[in-house]
Amino acid sequence: MAPLGAGGMGEVYRARDSQLDRVVAIKVLPELLSSDPDRLRRFEQEARAAAALNHPNILAVYQMGAYEGVPYLVSELLEGETLRETLRRGPLPLRRAIDYGVQIARGLGTAHEKGIVHRDLKPENLFITKDGRVKILDFGLAKLAQPKETETDLAPTVGLETQPGVVLGTMGYMSPEQVRGHAADNRSDIFAFGAVLYEMVMGKRTFEKPTSADTMSAILNEEPPSISQLGPNTPVGLQRVVQRCLEKKPEQRFQSAADLAFALEAMADSVSSSPHAAQEPRRLRPRSAGAALLIVAAAAALGYFWLQTSPVPKVSNYVQLTEDGQRKALIGTDGSRLYLVSASLGIAEMSVSGGDPRGLSIAPSPDMIPVDLSPDGSELLVVEGQGAPPRGPLWSLPVLGGSPRRLADTVGETGAWSPDGAMLAYTNLGDLFLAKADGTESRKLLTVKGDIKNVTWSPASDQLRFDTSESLGDLGQQLAWEVSAAGTGLRRLFAGWHNPPDECCGKWTADRKYFVFQSHGQIWALPKKGFLRPEPKPIQLTSSPLSLYSPLPGKDGKKLFLIGQAYRGELMRYDSKSGQFSPYFGGISAEYVDFSKDGQWVAYVSYPEGILWRSKLDGSDRLQLTYPPMYVMLPRWSPDGRTIIFFEFGVSAGKPARMYEVPPEGGSVRQIMPEDPSPQLDPNWSPDGSKIVFGGESNNAGSAIHVLDLASRHVSELPGSHGLFSPRWSPNGRYILACSTDSMRLVLFDFQTQKWNEIAKGPLGWLNWSKDGQYAYFASYRGKGAVLRTRISDRRTEQVADLKSFPLGGRYGGWLTLAPDGSPLLLRDAGTQDIYALDWETP
User: Fold this and answer.
1) Distance between CA atoms of 658 and 668, rounded to whole angstroms?
2) CATH hierarchy code of domain 1-77
3) Has domain 82-275+291-307 been given CATH number 1.10.510.10?
4) Among the options 17, 36, 120, 640, which is catalytic?
5) Could you tell me if 604 and 597 are in contact, meaning their C-beta atoms sit under 8 angstroms apart?
6) Known catalytic residue: 120?
7) CA 623 → CA 603, 604, 664, distances in Å?
């Protein structure tokens, strides 16, 4: 075994594998370093990362072990030199620099697909073999993507993670996010690649400053000199690639190494192979002049291509396909039929040309809700669940009859099969999972803050897009995201486009050129990003008086199906004697109704506008108290009738929910706790009006119940209230009623014992006290829904009203309060929903 020298953290030796009769390299971590836990961890991580990869542009690792306590790894033997040694002789010819760049990008692409981020890409870690092949070395700082149970803030879960604020990498090649000590992802490698490519072309470091502090400042704030100074024949496309790699913001760089490799390959043939270090001007020979003209023409073509706007698709000829006005949701199409779920029919189908939907009696359980159609149109993906939203086991349901098939042990809220039919993506609250199409080999891909909804695959089955609605505090702010099928490269779509953001329910068109989605009640199209084009902007397709949503492109590429909705509600009162619902307060379209203690006044929020009004019970003396864009939730009269408190979502500015107060005779709306930045939801008065109890966000395990003392302005937290929200103070002041953040438990806090006790099980919501304080009323989401009440004295629960034939309406698709006589009040959905077909035309 002959020594070859030092390599990264160890010593490298040349050896022969006697069993396979091949020459190999053995990297040994010296005993002095192997006693260092961090060095040993990095050494082992290098081996694991490299061994997980099999690519001609990544060093192949064959084996790892230890001999007499000294760790070693066996790899292929490379003959040549590092890129750093090559660059000491000066810049590279353009053709060779681009060729090396393509190879590096391909190797990085493979690592990124496996969830591995290098984090220390630099010329020292790039080896050029004698036959011109580039090998990526030293994955000692690599980040390996592995599922873990802790929730992160909209980032993939990873193992072997760096502590926040720790800077890893090599100065001069670190991305701005690494300099700041933030998490690195595949786009950090792309920044480092840009620095390496720049150095290969220019012959000097991209951010070369006298001190480390100056270098860090340059990475964060400065742009390197343009490579166009090399000469007039420098391809403009190469300058674009370098610039885009070195963008300060990760979302503005290339989002994948595969796209980067493609961009470099496309310009390789147009580049002269002559060296381009600083030279005296000289007369071009005819062949050189021809090549120069070709380069100029190519550059002009690239520039023209870059400046072209995306072609604009058009929709026309609205045709209403249904006329029942029933609530419904589109699931998919096989080209001749539309599959949907209807409030009256359940799972249904209809012709793409129109007609009445027909119910399909194929589900063995009434709790099975379809969420996707298989690519061949033969099976429905269904969730067998209850609650809001329904959550439960996933099943495959044959459309034309046959036995339903449970998809292994998967449990979720929604999901989608990949276009190639090989994979299944599904969600459970804030977790996104990936499995084989039959549900086997499931693994967590990432965890986000809030709920994941509306998952869709890219046409190539290599990317996933989904929506998040983070909690009550972010109502009206649906965010769209994209992540690779490997769980890497998570990025926000449409960032900074609309405020508040409200993007949802996107699907790819049949020709794979457009991503159609809904935003603020209309349909938009996002063109697929083209080669070397700037990031495309969404194109508005519709401008309808109806609210349009759930766009579904036709299989033939000629139609776009969607649902048009007119929002309206009808306030209804349930009469327990007759067992019937009847209009209340004239059947006004309003929700979140509250009555003054003397029973003379009512406050309510108009639906769907979200405006707070007050009037007398006979409807007279009506006065508007708030104005858009404020959207009011759950107003509450003070016991003395002098103040109305409420909370609002602040969707116009993207703020968390805040508590406000307003005089019932009108006047200024005042924020109650402007100094407290935390969410303030569901404010309720104490019986004597001296305190306000409020909660945090639903679906947030960190939510807690707080009490504001109005005299001292002191805020205290109820002991043991973490994981609870939606508090309600009992009329006698002894109890606080609340709900668990998973909506599965109704609990009661007793001020005398200072303890919480469970009194009912969910899923449930919209808590209310009876006027005498003997009962807790709530809406149950089990089965088709019901109004229930639990007696406080003995915890006995009974049904008050059946909601199976009552279409709940309102901003949140349901709400409950009690009239002064104790009767349940609910908002019935009186709007219309119908399916429309539009002609789809592309340029």
Assistant:
1) 16
2) 3.30.200.20
3) yes
4) 120
5) no
6) yes
7) 10, 11, 8
